Amino acid sequence: MNKSMMTAAVLSPLFIAISAHADENVPDRYGYIGGHVSEYFFYDNQVTGDVDGFDESAFPGGQIGWRFSPKWSVQAWYEKNDEVDHKYTDRESEVINYYASLRHHFDETSFLGFEPYTGINAGVQEINDNDETLAGVELGIQRALFKHVLLDLGTRHAYSVDREFWEGQVYAGLNLMFAVSGRETDNEPRQATDQPEEVIVADSDNDGVPDDRDDCPGTAPNARVDANGCQIYKMVNEQTIKTIYFEFDQSDVRGQFSDEVRDAAEQSRQGGKGQIRIEGHTDSIGSEQYNQGLSERRADSVKKQLIQEYRIDADKVDTRGYGESRPVAPNDTAEGREKNRRADIIVEGENKEPQFKE
């Protein structure tokens, strides 16, 4: 296909009157990645150091871009041909093109269902490892297909600021869109009416956020939700206390209380704060000074087990000894004294409490 025929095939919709039967269906904002094929035509010039220049050549490549507003987008473009023929000779060259483009889109304008755009671009053309700096303009049309596929047809003309030559191309690209928002129309033609149609969007879980914007469908009835339809939680501080008991005048943790120590370690890992405070206590037998030291040893014994057996960070564990000063039962009976020979493991944590409408 010669360059005039291909240019006409790509750009013919731009020169047809605006269609009354097809609407522009390209979204307002989206990212995309895709591939393309282009046909280059090089004007007679000293591209390669002689007067023959290059012959017309096809270039495959890829592109990635972002449309950040209804009227503007940016694009990065790459393509390569290892066997570009020279005019009138048997020589071949490797040519690689890189472009960055800024495009202006004619939003809400439709030519046979295509949205037109214009753009400026700059790039580098590598010819057998020799770089040429290019700058140019582009003109094209786009149409969305199958909801997330974008057809892109256009032409670009660029000028080498290094060696003063012109070149042109026509291209056809197919892109996969992502992060799509602001799609103006469906692929169905709109019905002409005197009054605008009321668009009713379903809200399946009745949380006040339409399904098309609800990131968390199926929330509980009367749940308080954020702008994305997700449950709102309040962080509530809570304490969990595990108590273990000791033999008379002993500070070793007995095996029968291993579950309490392990549970405290697991709750520490799950909680938002995870701080542990261990309070040691004794009965009233013995001097106050001795009992104070014994209560501290009991707290330290629990801390040692948390660190060595359950890998709790030492900085998260605080110990305190209260001696005989905080009994929970009378010390004048054996049963009471047994309850006072203890250590309380207090885990400071946070709990997510779901919020509901009143």
UniProtKB/TrEMBL annotation:
It is found in: Cell outer membrane. Residues 233-351 form the OmpA-like domain. Residues 284-294 have a biased composition (Polar residues). Gene3D superfamilies: 2.40.160.20, OmpA-like domain. Residues 1-22 form the signal peptide. Pfam families: OmpA (PF00691). Residues 313-323, 334-358 have a biased composition (Basic and acidic residues). The keyword Lyase does not apply. Residues 184-222, 265-297, 313-358 are annotated as: Disordered. Keywords: Cell outer membrane, Ion transport, Membrane, Porin, Signal, Transmembrane, Transmembrane beta strand, Transport. The keyword Transmembrane applies. CDD domains: OmpA_C-like. Residues 204-214 have a biased composition (Acidic residues). It comes from the Bacteria. It is a multi-pass membrane protein. This is Outer membrane protein OprF. It comes from Alloalcanivorax profundimaris.
